[in-house]
Specification:
Helices cover 48% and strands 15% of the residues. It has 158 residues and is of the alpha/beta class.
């Protein structure tokens, strides 16, 4: 059983969903506490509709999102070690939601979604570490380069 993750930072909704389709994702699991985004196409209702249009189910697990207080402190101090400690303490109280996620991932190909492109600096990595720790689940962190980032590289080498 494999659980994937993908951050949408730097992507448009079509590139994001294209990556999910390319990896045969059946269910997009939104792990943002508040699934709102200034980025077009990534707020809950719009993302759910866009996903459905390409045959991907959307589910929201707000209890697996990072609580506002922890996020706010991290944005202020950028202390990843402190963030990890606090979020993991919170996550260990979310056993019911982790079990729901595990059960879903056992039935179909799922991908956790959040904003951050780098999973190593995102709570997705902590959620997947908690699930993978039992040895029953493999984790794949997907990464997509946006067309804009390729254009920037081409310009740099022109």
């Amino acid at each position: 059983m494999t659980l994937m993750t993908l951050g949408y930072e730097g992507l448009d909704v079509h590139a994001f969903l294209g990556e999910l389709k390319a990896n045969r994702v059946a269910t997009l699991v939104d792990v943002r506490e508040l699934p709102l985004s200034r980025k077009k196409g990534f707020s809950k209702s719009t993302l759910a509709a866009e996903a459905k249009a390409v045959g991907i189910e959307y589910v929201h697990f707000p209890a697996l999102g990072c609580p506002r207080e922890i996020r706010k402190d991290y944005y202020g101090d950028r202390d990843w070690g402190r963030y990890k400690k606090r979020f993991n303490a919170y996550l260990h109280k979310q056993n019911t939601e982790l079990e729901r996620l595990r059960a879903l991932a056992e039935k179909q190909v799922c991908c956790l979604v959040c904003f951050e492109a780098d999973y190593r600096l995102c709570h997705r990595s902590l959620i997947t570490a908690a699930l993978a720790g039992e040895g029953r689940m493999q984790i794949r962190h997907l990464a997509v380069r946006s067309p804009a980032s390729f254009a920037g590289l081409e310009a740099a080498f022109a």
